[in-house]
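Collaborator request, handled under Task 6.
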Amino acid sequence: MLSFEITARDGAARRGVLRTVHGEMETPGFFAVATRAALKGLDPRAARAAGVQALICNGYHLAVQPGPDAVAAAGGLHRFMGWDGVLATDSGGFQVFSLRHGQVADELKGRRRLPASPQGQADDDPMEAVRVDEDGADFRSYLDGSRHRFTPENNMALQRALGADVLFCLDECTPFHVTAGYTRDATERNARWARRCLDAYHELGMAERQSLYGIVHGGVYPDLRRWSATEIAAMGFPGFGIGDCLGETKSDWYGVVDLVCPLLPDERPRHLLGVGEPDDLVEGALRGIDSFDCAMPTRIARHGQALRLGRRRYRLDLLGSACRGEDAPIEAGCPCSACTRFGRAYLHHLLKAREMLGISLVAEHNLAFTARLLARVRDAISAGRLAELRAEVVAEAA
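Structure tokens returned to the collaborator:
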């Protein structure tokens, strides 16, 4: 069972605590992405030491491998992956539908395609990678091309077996390039699927230990966003996600969040899906977002990019020649292992040599940076000074 307490406000911004049966997360907070029940390059203990409060795993990937039965037999995801804190699972819907829309883009640009199905028939068509109907969606395994099916009901059963604290409804996340008509159809179907997810959630007796978030859709269309937010809010979910296409620019998603947050119940937590750049965390908090998730901190670590203020796009390129002879830490005062024990020159060497230790250290730093920034956000809300912090963070992005 999830509870949410708001402890301070600064305009639309809220500071609070999200409590679950496996622990709590201070908000605004961050779910670090552990797609296949593992953070990329980082042990859960190191993540906890870096300030990570919560993780989010991917239902699609875990359904394909190792499968929900294996996770359930191990005692659920917390025990399976050795994580004793707040844990979320998304439905996997984004990955299912990105197979279709992403494949179309890949086809147009001459990029890779999914492996051929064992039959080598219509499944090779990128538009056939996912087949959606009112009941659910058929999709192919990225491992062997075998076909699987998600419905709202079996997706809830999947997430019940995985055992996370926070769950998200099965949905189709529409991309920017589809038509307004397509977005409308998907938004209306997503609302019907949300109702079915909620019904299955209660029928399966999940509410005692798990909390289901409904997701607001509608792409960049204000009328669809208002309709979706109103419909989803009326269903009475324990929490709410804001998902779907948020636009091409940051100002686009600022507008979406500005529109949606006031339409959601004030006392329930609000999660912004797939957003995590440093300035985005501050901007989202200003607009009333309570939690975020994003793979960016660990993803850019694999490319030698370390997060820090005062750098263009908040990134220090440790693979760059300038770091080769620098003995300074990534960021003075950062308590992570990378900054307290090693200089940039050593990290540059590890990354150039493709040593796994380099990726692990930079991933730890990036997650520690994100945790410390959000701690500053929370303190700024309590002090009524979040706008001042925003000005500082945005000024250092140039």
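The cover message to the collaborator said: "Residues 356-383 form the longest helix (28 residues). The CA atoms of residues 10 and 384 lie 5 Å apart. Please let us know whether this matches your experimental observations."
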